[in-house]
Amino acid sequence: MNKLFAEDMSTLKSVARQAMQDYGFLPDFSPQALTQLGTLPVAARDASSDLRDLRHLLWASIDNDDSRDLDQLSAAELLANDTVKVLVAIADVDCLVKADTPIDAHAAANTTSVYTAAQIFPMLPEKLSTDLTSLAQDQDRLSLVVEMTFDAEGVQTEAGLYRAMVRNHAKLAYNAVAAWLNGTGPKPAAIAAVEGMEEQIRLQDRVAQSLKRARYERGALTLDTSGSQAILSDGVLADLRPDEKNRAKELIEHLMIAANKVTAQYLERHNLPSLRRVLRKPERWNRIVALAAELGATLPAEPDAPALNAFLVARRDADPARFADLSLSIVKLLGAGVYALKTPGQNVEGHFGLALNDYTHSTAPNRRFPDLITQRLLKAALTGRPSPYTETQLASIAEHCTTQERNEAKVERRVAKSAAAFLLSSRVGQSFDAMVTGASDKGTWVRVREPMAEGMVVRGAVGLDVGDRVRVKLVHVDAARGFIDFERSPA
Asked: Each residue of 295-329: pLDDT tens digit?
């Protein structure tokens, strides 16, 4: 397999910048935003009487190995009757990024950080997202804390929300924590260095696994939704591999889902609007039914999340090696999530995949603009103030954030295809096992796994649909344009 060299990486970065511009993103911060950045204090302070001091708790972050834009910390406490109090601290980004300022305008335009195989385009300047508003280890930081109590079965019994000063005592990484929890790797040094941290992480893991079981019993979907991960060697791209789930990622995922549910309900109780995260019932349910039938299973004629999840669990257990491909097919057929305005008392469709009626995005304000908007709404609720945004403004923000999220996927996909084209350039003429990931009037696309790459079927695509397995031959690549072309091979 090819390895990209410095000149290839330079080309890839040019592709990334052009893709950002083509899809309506600002790749650079304005002079006004940079001027504002220079005027910000080294650390935000707040002497409000309602600010709690929780720096003594054994807070820890778990994220990717190289992540520095840390949005949340978690801590837990074992209570009587085997109940557990879980606290999720969310970085108080609004304390330094005020609404209608130049930095906020950049965040409002892009609405998300864009992570590509060439480079990262952060939503906020790195001085903020990786320093001043990051919940970095051994730093005192302002936060919003979601406090939840769960019984032994993972059922939430109490919840609250307040502002607090926190301190990250251990910056942990997904892969190392997962290996340790699974008994296949050593205890991470950052855990061993803090007295009580081992018990702390194991307690959080226990709660997360209980939440996972409870969620799936309600009909949440069991899916392996791993994307591609850029593998760098000496600063250049060496491979694109699946970014697979693990137990540590599940720990964070389930605690954050719980926190986002509490946040949505908190705003509703305080009679404030919210930006809900919605995944509607799938329009292509018939194709999901057909895919299940091809594998010997029967699904109801109408969308049914518990039935779909039962099918998914059975397939995961029966054929784990191919479950990621099946998951991708289902994800494509479910469609994309959207942001939607929820006014108090209004009925809004929930999240089909999570089996939740109340769900918002609140736990990543350094990386996602909807989370920063939610943070400002929460602060209004905490102080008894009216919403800082009108319903018309929130509806417009929801629509724009949905559009930019889809554009973000297009940017990342274009750069990933250029990177994969570089890596595949010496393999033109070779055949691959592939799975159909898209089929429409615009064309048919397939995914191969080594490297993880998606390309277009330029010949022989008739009759193919999402989820079909097919043998294809690589016939052409154009790295600068991100073109990877396959033709269908004889069976």
From this structure: 999 999 999 999 999 999 999 999 887 888 888 88
- pLDDT, tens digit, 9 for 90 and up, residues 266-298: 999 999 999 999 999 998 999 999 999 999 999
Question: What is the pLDDT at residue 238?
Answer: 56
Angle among Cα 287, 291, 292 to the nearest 5 degrees reads 120
CB distance 320 to 339 below 8 Å: no
Q: What are phi and psi of 333, to 5 degrees?
A: -80, -25
Q: Are residues 362 and 400 in the same domain?
A: yes
Max mean pLDDT among 8-17, 61-70, 189-198 falls in 189-198
Domain count, the chain: 3
Say if strands 469-478 and 443-449 run parallel, antiparallel, or are unpaired: unpaired
- Asked if residue 269 and residue 191 are part of one domain, the reply reads yes
Helix pair 102-110, 391-424: axis angle to 10 deg = 60
* Bridge partner residues of 162 (DSSP): 145
In a shared domain, residues 92 and 148? yes
Question: Is 343 found in the same domain as 328?
Answer: no
- Statement to judge: residues 347 and 477 lie in one domain: no
Structure tokens at 313: 């669990």
Q: Report how far apart the first and last C-alpha atoms of the chain are (Å, whole number).
A: 25
Residue 421 falls inside a structural domain: no
Backbone phi and psi for residue 264, each to the nearest 5 degrees, phi listed first: -60, -45
How far apart are the C-alpha atoms of 412 and 253, rounded to whole Å? 22
Q: Is residue 30 part of a domain?
A: no
Alpha carbon separation from 186 to 59, 137, 209, 244, 475 (Å, rounded): 21, 21, 21, 20, 45
CB 69 within 8 A of CB 122: yes
Query: Do both 307 and 455 map to the same domain?
Result: no
β-pair partners for 445: 438, 456
Name 62's bridge partners.
Answer: 172
Q: Model-level pTM?
A: 0.89
Domain match, 191 and 318 both = no
